[in-house]
């Protein structure tokens, strides 16, 4: 693992990130894992910057998905954001940068391969964005987030195929300019033993029906049937 004992190494990392830090100490802090801090009493960890960076990424992705996908409802936008703002996706972005070799780890964590652990990489990535926010402001952190996560953002909508039928139907309807699917649900039976019946209207036509013990289950079945009908 590369030592961060000198400013030149930090500047090398900053170059890979694509931000010239005015306060290079912020980058040092962003790359300091709690395991390192536990062995060095005078070295705080990156956990507070991680908290800040998490908020940055969440806001940036929410804003980006909202602007890009005007036809998607709140549920789909949430799924899109989650497909990027998660440990796996952030760790992939961190690996792409080669961030792992710059993270300061405690001896045990370093020996255990901590520099390539998903959680450590994701947290360091968020901490770096938190550091950029403090160093240069919200616009700089916003633009850097978009640039560093561009592949994940571009792949978010295709990735919806792995999500639930309602989300898939929302995407399909938007692609075909059929408007937002409308679900009509009724129930039968006593409160403790209800059965729900759903139908989904897409493009002004009923495309699918479903039955289930919950409203959600009935809607998902109707959506799956609609997807098959539109295929």
Write a structural description.
Helix 2 packs antiparallel against helix 8, helix 8 packs antiparallel against helix 9 and helix 11 crosses helix 12. The N and C termini lie far apart (51 Å). It is built from twelve helices and three strands. It folds into two domains: 152 residues, Ribonuclease III domain (Ribonuclease iii, N-terminal Endonuclease Domain, Chain A, Orthogonal Bundle); 67 residues, Double Stranded RNA Binding Domain. A three-stranded antiparallel sheet has the order 1-2-3, covered by helices on one side. The mean pLDDT is 90. It has 231 residues and is mainly alpha-helical.
The tally of beta strands, per DSSP, is: 3
> From the alpha-carbon coordinates, what is the Rg to the nearest angstrom?
23 Å
What class do helices, strands and sheet pairing give? mainly alpha
Shape, principal axes of CA atoms: elongated
Low-confidence parts lasting 5 or more residues at pLDDT below 50?
Answer: none
Measured between the Cα atoms of the first and last residue, the distance is 51 Å
Mean pLDDT: 90
Q: Classify the beta-strand content into a percent band.
A: 5-15%
Itemize the secondary structure elements and their pairings:
Layout lengths: L6 H11 L6 H7 L3 H6 L7 H22 L5 H11 L2 H11 L9 H5 L6 H19 L1 H11 L1 H5 L10 H11 L6 E7 L6 E8 L2 E8 L2 H16 L1
Antiparallel strand pairs: 1-2, 2-3
Helix pairs in contact: 2-8, 4-5, 4-8, 4-9, 6-8, 8-9, 11-12
Give a quick rundown of the structure.
It is built from 12 helices and 3 strands. The chain is mostly helical and 231 residues long.
Key terms:
231 residues; mainly alpha; Ribonuclease iii, N-terminal Endonuclease Domain, Chain A; Double Stranded RNA Binding Domain; 2 domains; 3 strands; elongated
